Amino acid sequence: xxxxxxxxxxxxxxxxxxxxxxxxxxxxxxxxxxxxxxxxxxxxxxxxxxxxxxxxxxxxxxxxxxxxxxxxxxxxxxxxxxxxxxxxxxxxxxxxxxxxxxxxxxxxxxxxxxxxxxxxxxxxxxxxxxxxxxxxxxxxxxxxxxxxxxxxxxxxxxxxxxxxxxxxxxxxxxxxxxxxxxxxxxxxxxxxxxxxxxxxxxxxxxxxxxxxxxxxxxxxxxxxxxxxxxxxxxxxxxxxxxxxxxxxxxxxxxxxxxxxxxxxxxxxxxxxxxxxxxxxxxxxxxxxxxxxxxxxxxxxxxxxxxxxxxxxxxxxxxxxxxxxxxxxxxxxxxxxxxxxxxxxxxxxxxxxxxxxxxxxxxxxxxxxxxxxxxxxxxxxxxxxxxxxxxxxxxxxxxxxxxxxxxxxxxxxxxxxxxxxxxxxxxxxxxxxxxxxxxxxxxxxxxxxxxxxxxxxxxxxxxxxxxxxxxxxxxxxxxxxxxxxxxxxxxxxxxxxxxxxxxxxxxxxxxxxxxxxxxxxxxxxxxxxxxxxxxxxxxxxxxxxxxxxxxxxxxxxxxxxxxxxxxxxxxxxxxxxxxxxxxxxxxxxxxxxxxxxxxxxxxxxxxxxxxxxxxxxxxxxxxxxxxxxxxxxxxxxxxxxxxxxxxxxxxxxxxxxxxxxxxxxxxxxxxxxxxxxxxxxxxxxxxxxxxxxxxxxxxxxxxxxxxxxxxxxxxxxxxxxxxxxx
Length: 725
Ligand code: BGC
Known about the structure:
Layout: E1 9-11, E2 20-27, E3 32-42, E4 44-49, E5 52-53, E6 70-76, E7 84-92, H1 108-113, E8 118-127, E9 132-136, E10 142-145, E11 148-152, E12 156-160, E13 169-173, E14 181-183, E15 189-196, E16 199-202, E17 208-226, E18 231-237, E19 239-240, E20 246-247, E21 257-261, E22 265-269, E23 276-285, E24 295-302, E25 308-312, H2 315-331, E26 332-333, E27 335-336, H3 349-362, H4 366-378, H5 406-418, H6 422-441, H7 474-495, H8 501-517, H9 524-532, H10 539-552, H11 564-573, H12 577-585, H13 594-597, H14 633-640, E28 643-644, E29 655-657, E30 667-674, E31 677-686, E32 689-696, E33 700-704, E34 707-711, E35 714-721
Parallel strand pairs: 6-14, 12-21, 29-33
Antiparallel strand pairs: 1-13, 2-7, 2-10, 3-6, 3-8, 4-5, 4-7, 8-9, 10-13, 11-12, 15-24, 16-17, 17-22, 17-23, 17-24, 18-21, 18-23, 19-20, 25-30, 26-27, 28-29, 30-31, 31-32, 32-35, 33-34
This protein binds beta-D-glucopyranose.
């Protein structure tokens, strides 16, 4: 990359919290054919050439494991170039210099905030006479204070629009690695959708609150006509409390505030170097009477292409499907995060691993995950252990089962959905190292015992008094995942033409040791894992026992992050589709539709984030935009609508059409734009039978109650009479 010829530059004099603007004035000496800008920063930046924004990538350069990898963006700026030019680049703290994570008290926050602000850029001008000129960051650049007085990820942004950069000062060279520079790998982050104010509320507490009707991740853009010095001040919230008042205690340490001091006249503004997870804003100060048309909620996320759609005869279920996709949009902002609002917003590996399959169906996330998985690999511990977050800003944490397993599960799923082995080739070493690290970490050979784990996070079966880790045995979960990850390494290695006999033997030993150590299963999640990871000696019997447990619990799930994604699959695979549907359609706590009855517009972190009486479960860990439990949508695509493929048919080389219709929802439609073309499936429950419609661009194996047969690509209608009709 040519940018490496440029020099890292930084401020000669510290500006504290103020975001600096760097500039370079230059002339284009001849007639220009093409001009390009290669650029990146330590922080997040926005560039302007002659007062016009360069590109539409926001929060560039995105979030990577900065120690090892920093993406460089390349923009075509031919159109923006004049004869005399001024390039300005404002750099905010971004992820690189924000005090993350919120709960850290042992110095990491401070260390991160103290890192230098840096910029590196190369401008290449190609003239029509065939000559070229380059302008590089160097001592010729200058820096000044910008109107952005403060900006960081958790606390928000402060801008004084009256400030005009003017006291230009020298910059200095920064000694920083250029080996970390890589070309842009992920999807670009953009302003993707805009939403209007639904209602301006005067709350019982007398506050002015704006409701956008949908929780999004991004920012509010506003237009105000004011005198210089007037203050716009608001903060963000996801829900109102049970009195209808503004609430954001659940943001914990994140202030999530915007402060904007107006210049004279009409002006439109939005934050530039931060983002918020919100549905509401509390307007603390606004010059004059706020009007709905003055505000727009802008949803900001990675520019992924939508590929999957679900629709049914049940409006509540449809709202849930929408909530799942909003959860994905809100948490796929360059890195798959747990939540977008509180003082976390981290790439929790467990959450990503749980949701990855659903994510691949709703959106094309191949590029998004390939980039993130390289960060995960870059941050693997020397022994191969995988941290709980990637990029790993926790450093000192210990690997947890089901979280670290993102190293194997995510690449495998990306390969399965899209059919390109490149991701396996890319990640194979990381996958293998993860499995090897378990072998050296465990207290018992061929199992994973000991260690610190998150267990079946947030499940409902912890002993009275409750622990967030649930009631399943940590060694059980860890050993089950050890088996699963080893199996995936074997599969990936074989596909890449490697000799995997050593890992095959290891897998066999793990299964044997597991069966010996855990002859019985205690919780719903233990049953689920034993069947789904093919550890149970008698899967049918185990699935039947699981069904019985669910019924005995009053047709209620008791599972957390680990058991929930596979629960309905296991029930359906072993003849209990009806019960799986009952769990999905349950409107009372605990269940997927309960939050929908409470007005949710995204998926909640907890089954009971808002309790029946309207009060909150807790303030300390209660996100209303956590995608993990939305993972059930992959069951709807694969089992309810019936669109799946065999493991050997990655990328939907051949379709297995095996739907499980249910009378209670009436009809279900699924559309999936696969790498082999668009598939659509529909079923409708009628009085004396079920009508199925399938449109497939690939050969399909049809599995309906009447039997199995193969069909060529085409559009088909099938009819099944109810047995009793
Ligand atoms: C996050 C989770 C995450 C967990 C680890 C939480 O604070 O929000 O989603 O996986 O910590 O247990």
